[in-house]
Amino acid sequence: MPYKPKLPVFNISNFDDYNNCMKFDGSFYVRSFNEHVKENVFIEKPHGHNFYLILLITKGKGIHTIDFLEYDVYPGTMFIVSPGQIHHWNLSADVDGYILFFTKEYFLHDFNTEKLTSFPFFNSTFSLPFIKLNNEYLESIILKYQLIHAEYKTRFTNYHEIIRVYLYAMFIELSRIYIKNNDNSPIFNYDLLQLNRYEALVDKYYKKHRPISCYSKKMNITNRQLSYLCKKTVNKTPLEILTERIILQAKRLLIHSNFSISSIANELNYNNDSYFIRFFKKSTKLTPEQFRTNQYNK
Questions:
Q1: Which of 35, 111, 138, 257 sits a CA distance of 20 to 30 A from 193?
Q2: 9-182 has which CATH code?
Q3: C-alpha distances in angstroms, 265 versus 91, 110, 248, 259, 296?
Q4: Distance in angstroms (rounded) separating the CA atoms of residues 98 and 87
Q5: What is residue 23's predicted lDDT score, i.e. its pLDDT?
Q6: 273 contact partners, CB below 8 Å, separation of at least 6
Q7: What are phi and psi for residue 111, nearest 5 degrees?
Q8: What ranges do the domains of the chain cover?
Q9: CATH number for domain 189-296, candidates 3.40.50.2000, 1.10.10.60, 2.60.40.1220, 3.40.630.30
């Protein structure tokens, strides 16, 4: 059975606004979703990107698949896809809404890193990329999209600064909705920052298989404190978070690359193929080959 080629990873400069004959500058992109999907048909297939994607649906229906999980698409749904995530969709022809992209560097031009990582949905591995809006919130978020779009089209003096302020206001409102939808007791910002610090370290070092004590030491906290933090915020142990990150990358490579099982094991720093296969099966109940076959046959 031939394997699929490695999936594409897009950047913002891959997208054009053909209606307005405008090339986007590589750090920010905003337009109606209907125009976006009609002019960029290549995005219907699985792909990744190196920017954040914020999508609001106002019309239509379908399925949006993000890192192997399927989400229903209908009016009032929002999707927040982070760099490194793999996604694609199957949507009705009448779908519409608003979509915007921005790079991390674009937002951090006027804000520090903590401003971005304090929002609960900006973690590619562990946060839900889905938010459901009621009519009141939907109208408010649509207005912010329209203000951002107007600024980008007119390009008056300091328009990027205004866009970043609108983005920040949008993220504050979305974080309130996100926390309300997912947990009735809001997580304090300090806990979110600490969790994001741990997750960022995991994302950086997971291939090196470092013990949990290495992560807690880098964070200047004890193993017990790290364990308490992870259980409090996402109800998982530090080891579970680390394991999930390794398994997610293994799944991405199995489905979206032509690497052999041995090559994937080596890529994830497992020198023993058999150990990697047992590790994968323990977490997924399938061998890597079974997982790959099942996904191809869907």
A1: 138
A2: 2.60.120.280
A3: 35, 41, 13, 10, 20
A4: 17
A5: 53
A6: 261, 262, 265
A7: -135, 155
A8: 9-182, 189-296
A9: 1.10.10.60
| 264: pLDDT strictly greater than 50 | yes
Which tokens go with 286?
């399938």
% pLDDT > 90, the chain: 55
In tens, the pLDDT along 60-113 reads: 999 999 988 899 999 999 999 988 888 999 999 999 999 999 998 899 888 876
CA dihedral for 15, 21, 23, 27, sign (positive or negative): negative
72 three-state secondary structure: strand
Task: Map 29-46 to HEC letters.
Answer: EEEEHHHHHHHCHHHHCC
The average pLDDT across 266-283 equals: 94
Q: What is the Cα–Cα distance from 186 to 31, expressed in whole angstroms?
A: 32
State the DSSP code for 211.
-
